[in-house]
Design brief:
Blueprint: E1 2-7, E2 16-20, E3 26-29, E4 61-63, H1 69-72, H2 75-80, E5 86-90, H3 91-121, H4 132-135, H5 146-153, E6 156-159, E7 165-168, E8 171-177, E9 185-193, E10 196-202, E11 225-229, H6 243-256, E12 261-265, H7 271-284, E13 292-296, H8 298-309, H9 316-325, E14 334-336, H10 340-345, E15 353-357, H11 367-374, E16 380-384, H12 393-398, E17 403-406, E18 409-412, E19 416-419, H13 429-436, E20 446-450, H14 454-466, E21 472-473, E22 480-482
The structure holds zinc ion (ZN).
Length: 483
């Protein structure tokens, strides 16, 4: 059979891998959005032909490791282009994916609306002269809308963790918890071809032990081929205190010792729930000052409900907390901000407070006006709880920018900016080494590194070779291996 690397090859985003059996049965593992920024001097190829270098109508099955958009974000396009089969994933992944895809669809709708407005402002053109087909250019071809998400979700089927599922006479799959996000899995495929069994493991994104709410990554079986992420292939997490201690300290420094404001940019799905749960734990231990905490993101509110609904699939500590307090994300002084008007009104709140809002990289969303309002306030701390990729406003701030541009205006940065990696959902270098070391170098035939910066992969490869793994590959996009 053949294994094709169609995305997240020598880069982080756009996970997409194709297994083509000799009998023609074809399985796609992940179907993510490529969110890479063009490197210096290069133009990103956005034509639809680059979306899928295969015919979606010929695909038999899609497996999804987890909900993040760089793994799931192109699924509606698969169905739009004729895919008729199922997407198999875990139940929480199904719920979170629907939320994220609908959010993407509404962003796409806004982008198309802006395009329409730009076309309308051209001289002599009125709305009736513009056809919807005019908006379908190569650049916008991949913009699916809400109806296409609804159509795609009808193909989703959820499976339990840890139970082998026979998808074909000769193909069995098992989802194994990775502790990266609610529902996130590594996927084991057991395939028999010409009487010989082969085992593949697609890591998805690997998590870490003791992460708030999530079950630790589960032990892995021995396989013949491992397709492993390498996001933190050359980095270790730095935080040496618990999430609660780190959070308590920054709250004390910002809102107690001075009467300031704490702004936490956080991804709506996963990160915000880890932050809210940590605050809830501080609250029940009476370690929070009596100040308002605003959770200000509609997407975060919806994903928090999903986390709450799936509390039976969280770690034992979270389950015990739920049994005792009947809610993981609701506590005194926490306010879920309903609409944009109320969000903007927070700037009139004159007391110290905490604002948690999205997006985590300040690329869009309500966090932007909170940042604009408070950047020049020396009593404000902006507390980053996650990674921000190069070229984003979040990355500039995290890296000490003294001037900051947002929506064509320049602001002096007077607020204090701090960050932590204690809430990162990815395992670090040490975790990744331990993940791979569950395999034996003698048994593993090939190890493919994906989903990482090229440098990170190269460094990780050197370390893995030192551990005795000889056949370590860094596939390029489009590369095909006979397996
Ligand atoms: Zn992920």
């Amino acid at each position: 059979m053949q294994l094709k690397f169609l995305g997240a090859a020598r880069q982080v985003t756009g996970s997409m891998f194709l297994l083509q059996l000799n009998d023609g049965y074809t399985i796609l593992i992940d179907c993510g959005l490529d969110m890479e920024r063009p490197k210096n001097g290069t133009q990103k190829d956005k034509t639809p032909a680059s979306l899928f270098p295969f015919d979606p109508t010929q695909l038999d099955l899609v497996l999804l490791t987890h909900a993040h958009i760089d793994h799931s974000g192109n699924i509606p396009n698969l169905y739009r282009l004729g895919y008729k089969g199922q997407v198999l994933c875990t139940a929480p992944t199904q719920a979170l994916t629907e939320l994220l895809l609908q959010d993407s669809a509404s962003i796409n709708r806004k982008k198309l609306g802006n395009l329409l407005r730009r076309k309308l402002t051209k001289k002599g053109r009125t709305r009736k002269h513009i056809k919807t087909s005019d908006l379908r250019t190569p650049e916008t071809e991949h913009y699916y809308l809400e109806a296409q998400v609804t159509q795609a979700m009808q193909g989703f089927v959820s499976l339990r963790f840890g139970e082998a599922f026979q998808v074909q006479e000769n193909v069995k799959i098992t989802f194994i918890e990775t502790g990266h996000l609610l529902g996130a899995a590594s996927i084991l495929l057991e395939i028999t071809e010409n009487g010989s069994p082969k085992r593949f493991l697609f890591s998805g994104d690997t998590g870490r032990k003791n992460y708030p709410l999530l079950i630790d990554p589960q032990p892995l079986p021995k396989v013949d081929y491992l397709i492993c992420e390498s996001t933190y292939g050359n980095r270790e997490h730095q935080a040496d205190k618990s999430p609660e201690d780190i959070m308590e300290q920054v709250i004390y420094e910002t809102c107690v010792s001075i009467p300031g404001r704490l702004i936490i940019p956080a991804f709506s799905v996963g990160r915000t729930q880890a932050v809210l749960y940590t605050l809830n734990k501080l609250s029940v231990k009476k370690r929070l000052p009596p100040i308002k905490i605003f959770s200000d993101s509609p997407l975060a509110l919806e994903s928090t409900k999903i986390y709450q609904n799936f509390h039976n699939m969280l770690n034992s500590e979270a389950k015990a907390f739920q049994a005792k307090h009947h809610n993981l994300f609701d506590f005194e002084n926490l306010v879920y901000v309903e609409n944009l008007k109320k969000s903007k009104a927070i700037s009139n709140h004159q007391e110290p407070c905490i604002i948690i809002s999205a997006s985590g990289m300040i690329e869009g969303g309500r966090i932007q006006h909170h940042i604009r309002e408070n950047l020049q306030n020396p009593y404000c701390t902006i507390f980053f709880t996650g990674y921000a990729s190069e070229g984003t406003p979040g990355h500039a701030l995290m890296n000490g920018a003294t001037e900051f541009q947002l929506r064509k205006r320049t602001y002096q940065v007077k607020a204090r900016v701090v960050s932590t990696d204690v809430f990162s959902g990815h395992g670090d270098h040490k975790d990744l080494i331990n993940y791979v070391k569950q395999q034996s170098p003698e048994h593993l035939k090939k190890l493919f590194l994906i989903h990482g910066e090229y440098q990170s992969m190269q460094d990780f490869r050197v370390d893995l070779m030192e551990e005795g793994f000889k056949e370590v590959f860094l596939p390029e996009k489009g590369e095909v291996f006979e397996v």
